[in-house]
Amino acid sequence: MICPELRFFIWVFHKKVHITQGDLEGKALIVSWVTQKARGSNLVLYWKEHSNKMLKAHGKSKKYNFYNYTSGHIHHCTIRNLEVHHHHYHNLFYHSVSDFVVLFLQYDTKYYYMVGVGQTERTFWFLTPPKPGPDVPYTVGLIGELGQSFDSNITLTHYENNPLKGQTILFVGDFSYADTYPNHDNNRWDIWGRFVERSTAYQPWIWTVGNHELDFAPQTGETKPFQPFKHRYRTPHRSSGSTEPFWYSIKRGLAYIIVLASYSAYGKYTPQYMWLEQEFPKVNKTETPWLIVLMHSMWYNSYDYHYMEGETMRAMYELWFIKNKVDVIFAGYVHGERSECISNIAYNLVNGICSPVKDLSAPVYITIGDGGNLEGLSTIMTEPQPKYSAFRDASFGHAISSIKNRTHTYYGWHRNQDGCAVDGDTMWFFNRFWHPIDDSPDDDS
Prior knowledge:
InterPro entries: Calcineurin-like_PHP, Metallo-depent_PP-like, MPP_PAP, PAPs-like, PAPs_C, PAPs_N, Purple_acid_Pase-like_N. Its EC number is 3.1.3.2. The structure is a single chain. By secondary structure, the protein is α+β, with helices and mostly antiparallel strands. It is built from six helices and 28 strands. The strands form seven sheets. Strands 17-18-19-20-24-21-25 form a seven-stranded mixed beta sheet, with no helix packed on it. The protein has a six-stranded mixed beta sheet with strand order 16-15-14-26-27-28, with helices on one face. A five-stranded mixed beta sheet has the order 10-4-3-12-13, with no helix packed on it. The N terminus is likely disordered.
């Protein structure tokens, strides 16, 4: 039993802080946190490293109800244009963004920020991304289906100790697994937020929704999907013209990242379809040569679990991916698989051709849904291993993708049972636009 004094300390101190990119270009940051009892301050103070000029931004907070659960006060605050012009106000302790002429964000700069101003003040820091450009190295971490198990903790610790330090995490869905508890126990969202804060408060996590974020529970009267996610997590969807927070795009260094929603309508004439159709022409491979797509339900999968569940989305969008030279697709759902460069765009019901074939103009598909979920590992696979599957391993782990320049990216997948510097699977990617050659490691030669 927790004593009342300690319980109060937990309510005040644990704020489940997380950050994500706040716009398309990387010139803004969304800071989110939770206060459990009193609403507290919506204010965020922030300042550049080695600077004594504090700035402030004001956010908003809301609570939500889910069945018999009532959330704490969930705060969201967008820090925009972190570097502002200041005149004779230099004697003030901090400055308000609204009081100044906005200039620009300083790229590749360390900033500190504070939440809980005037109450339990907590300070964190983050690094802004480099200016989008074709030859600025950038390293991302990749985690999916993290959950809150013993293995989840090992995965996150393994990632934190990886000598190839990720500068942001591309998260491919399935957060807290609250929906696996009775009545979708939303307290599990709070626990998960505290668990991942050690990473999410210091580097942006780019969110992708999975099936465990649906939280569709008509048996309890909860008939609007994604409600806990929508209240707790923000995405910069409006800056890329999206009408929903589940699909959007961002630029991060030399990568253009498109996030898609496997569990929102994606057929012809749907909002997601029409948005994606207009999004591809915006990609400038001279500025951001690497085109990365995140989704939850994988299109190519040789595991028995969730086999072909992404098939209808593949049939809709695969040709677009090839025509627009998508380099790699990261998905979740099952554990540890990497495809060859393949496509199945020849498939139709008339000619009967329905086998994926090697296609050097097609992207590589990587399934990384192996963070540590309570459902355990998927171990039943199609035998023999299909030709389109280059590598598969049913283990928990994470991946690092180190984008070196416009032509080369180094990818490494790390199993939890190995040392932090040990690669369970590796691959050098060659850019589809700038270096379009066969990057398959096991071709016939």
